[in-house]
Amino acid sequence: MTTDISVSFKDKNIVFYDGECGFCNHWVQWILEKDKNDKFLFSSLQSEFGQKFLNERNLPNQVFDTLYLWKPDSFYLTKYQAILEIASEIGGIYSLASIGKILPDAIGNQFYNLVSRNRKKLAANQCFLPSADQRKKFIN
Q1: In terms of Cα–Cα distance, which of 5, 73, 94, 74 is closest to 41?
Q2: When comparing pLDDT for 41 and 131, which is higher?
Q3: How many domains does the chain contain in total?
Q4: Burial code of 33-64, b = ≥16 C-beta within 10 A, e = fewer?
Q5: Pfam families, alphabetically (predicted)?
Q6: 35 found inside a domain
Q7: pLDDT tens, 12-32?
Q8: Structural domain of 92
Q9: What are phi and psi of 10, to 5 degrees?
Q10: How many CA atoms lie within 13 A of 104 on its CB side?
Q11: How many CA atoms lie within 13 A of 25 on its CB side?
Q12: Among 12-21, 105-114, 127-136, which is the least confidently predicted range?
């Protein structure tokens, strides 16, 4: 039985990320701080929900080097395009990141892949203890 994300979380963007990566967790915390309009939910790719998302779309479910952004209107973005869309959704000064859309996806994704390959060297794993309100934004 498939979970219809578009029905369960119809008005939220869901960020799927590597839950065992300190660099990735740092950016999840950053999004949590900047998400003043409560647009985002989060799920690690290793979680039951994350694995279901990957499996239902025949995406790799053992390699967690790709960031996915589920949009409420039933599609998802990956890598560089996901980052640009997250910045745009946060708004304010961060919406200027949309200038990055002038780069071809191939170039943006090359940069993304370079960072992704080195992400575990870029930040140490630290235990993040979300507040009660922040915990409500995580899907397991």
Answers
A1: 5
A2: 41
A3: 1
A4: ebbeeeebbbbbbebebbebbbeeeeeeeeeb
A5: DCC1-like
A6: yes
A7: 999 999 998 888 999 999 999
A8: 5-135
A9: -65, -25
A10: 3
A11: 13
A12: 127-136
